Amino acid sequence: MSDDRINYLKNKLVQYPDFPKKGILFEDIMPIFQDPRAFGILIDLLLEAVETEFNNIDVIVGLEARGFLFGPTLALRANCAFVPVRKPNKLPGDLVVVSYNKEYSTDSFAIQKGTIKPGQRVLIVDDILATGGTALAADELVTRLGGELVGHLFLLELTFLQGRKRLMAPTYTLLTGQDEAPDGSEFA
Questions:
Q1: Backbone φ and ψ of 176, nearest 5°
Q2: What letters, b where the CB count within 10 A reaches 16 and e where it falls short, cover 171-182?
Q3: Were 94 and a residue from 98, 110, 113, 126 both cysteine, which residue would form a disulfide, CB within 3.0 to 4.6 Å?
Q4: What DSSP string describes 32-77?
């Protein structure tokens, strides 16, 4: 993987201290999507990871909301289905719902029954790996539908939160950041 491409993406990230609450150092990935070159690099690097780290993916599951920014494009380029995992009351029909803890709150995820067939090989994608709570909730949804979880793919990992240690499936991240908890953080 080219250091120039990785550095280009890293230079697009913007940090916001004390957002969404005091003690959190928020990593804003949105500038990547405002730059067509950066977005193209992101998709190319994610596709390279899919092709080298994970085999024969049938479904890419994207987590609300920022997993939706690149999940469908990645699924299209990888020639597989895209399935959204959303907050409750955002999807119609029969759903499977699980609750989970995030680095600064509690939430729930839902997936439509029948969107993943038993035995399909599933890769979960999201923007940031923090505590691993959202990924674990998505793991449970995939498993309940009978999918075979092959791994997780993230744009950025906040290493000080050690979310990777909670995940059982192979995990790949393009970028790493925040090796230590921010000063004044509840995680310090």
A1: -125, 150
A2: bbbbbebbeeeb
A3: 113
A4: HHTSHHHHHHHHHHHHHHHHHHS-S--EEEEETTTHHHHHHHHHHH
- Binding-site positions for AMP read 130-134
The model carries a pTM of 0.91
> Could you tell me which residues are annotated as the binding site?
130-134
Which CATH number does the domain housing residue 89 bear?
3.40.50.2020
Q: Could you read off the pLDDT of 30-69 as tens digits, one per residue?
A: 999 999 999 999 999 999 999 999 989 999 999 999 999 9
Domain enclosing residue 100, as ranges: 3-177
Q: How far is CA 64 from the centre of its chain?
A: 9
pLDDT band at 106 (very low <50, low <70, confident <90, very high): confident
What angle is formed at CA 180 by the lines to CA 179 and CA 184, rounded to 5 degrees?
150
Residues with catalytic function: 66, 103
Question: How many structural domains does the chain have?
Answer: 1
Q: Is residue 185 part of a domain?
A: no
As given in the structure block, the two tokens for residue 184 are 């004044």
d(CA 158, CA 13): 13
Per-residue pLDDT tens digits for 107-128: 899 999 999 999 999 999 999 9
